[in-house]
């Protein structure tokens, strides 16, 4: 009973306290309502916390704003200028939004007095330049949005008064230059967005001021290359986004040097290959997005340094093939999105282990449904396809079938492959003189179409370049054969179902050691294997002796013709006889006879000139 009595006493005290609190709150509300100042004209106010003056057709900032306001919304008006100390009475304001106005001028110290302001939005105005000191008096500002203006340049010390600023959004401007000291004073900046500018180079010197920057976004810039050491001072940067740079074709080998990124995005650019060399040191990279670049191949064993990579996105590219071992070494790899490409298959050998893979985007690819994709169907219950199941397109039997449509019973008979078979297995043995060119043929069939490769006598793979090279049609070409090329070469036809091989032999006859003949034609295409069954002893229609005889006959014919012409001209000239006088020239020289006559008479002297024609 005593315990119950004490409990009732505590309840009574609690009720009296609650009533007292309610009375005080009511009195406070009544007092507030009695002392509340009127809301400015064209504005709407809410308990002195929010002053909403949007869409009010205001040409200037209202004068009688509440001093205790926390949020001021001046969007969608006709304000053109912010004068000196425009908001000096709003010391408690936390957020100011001046977006969607006609702002063209912000005077120095226009925001002086807003010492509590955390967010300032000036987006979608007509600002062309921000004068030094415009942001004075904003010691606690954390977010600045100046997107969609007409800003041309960031001059030195533009943001020097914003020591607490953490994020700048400067997207969609007309920036052509960022001064080296423009970001001086931004000692707390974590995130920077620069978008839609006319910059043709990364402002590396300006970025050195941002020692704690963690996220950097470049969009729609005029970059055509990313030079070495572009970001080497940004040691704390974790996220780098470069997008919509249609002229960006290459990343220099050390362009990302000094970075320890966890996320890298290079989208909507013009990269034709995965930038393996710039990426190799990013051992902490988790997220990589190279979508909408004309990348055609992901080669094998070149991404193994990205030990922590979990996601790779390459959507909307020109991917033709993902090589075996492309993701070897990536033990944490969980997501691959290669939708909207030109892939015909994706083999399990591309991965370190398909067991770790959780999400796979393969839709909108011309997939050939054969045994190479059997692993995808078998693991479909463990994989997410992003809501778009892969579809067969190259097989007439399975055209437009979705992977999820296959049943376990149907799989063995539908997704099949056929082992390669080399068509003509007749032995090819070729004997050829030194300096000639030889071609060996190797054709095979299978499903999928086999890949043809060649091994040299030392069993090393041959490449499509060099003097001994593989051709696109599967043939092997040995140009200007040398004695050291002797041996047995091996053609290997392989696909997912297995392989087949064929051996061919080459014997090169070296020049005799005493041969001094300078007319030896080393580059003559002497012995091509016209078909897999060609005998290596076949002789060519022209040898060196025949060529020498033909050259001698031609020389003698030419010399004889010229000699006959000269002899004919000689006898013709002799038949014309002596050359007659062809011209007579008369002239009147000064003479002693004429002078003695006192100039009264003329004395003419005649001379003949004979010209001989040869």
From TrEMBL:
PROSITE patterns per record: IG_LIKE (PS50835)
Localization per Swiss-Prot or TrEMBL: Membrane
Topology relative to the membrane: Single-pass type I membrane protein
Leader sequence segment: 1-32
Transmembrane spans: 547-572
Chain coiled-coil ranges: none
Keywords noted in UniProt: Disulfide bond, Glycoprotein, Immunoglobulin domain, Leucine-rich repeat, Membrane, Repeat, Signal, Transmembrane, Transmembrane helix
InterPro entries from the UniProt entry: Ig-like_dom, Ig-like_dom_sf, Ig-like_fold, Ig_I-set, Ig_sub, Ig_sub2, Leu-rich_rpt, Leu-rich_rpt_typical-subtyp
Keyword NAD found: no
GO cellular-component term (any): membrane
A Pfam family matched in the record: LRR_8
Record-annotated Ig-like domain positions: 420-505
Main localization (coarse): membrane
Entry keyword Chloroplast: no
Protein name: Ig-like domain-containing protein
Organism: Scophthalmus maximus
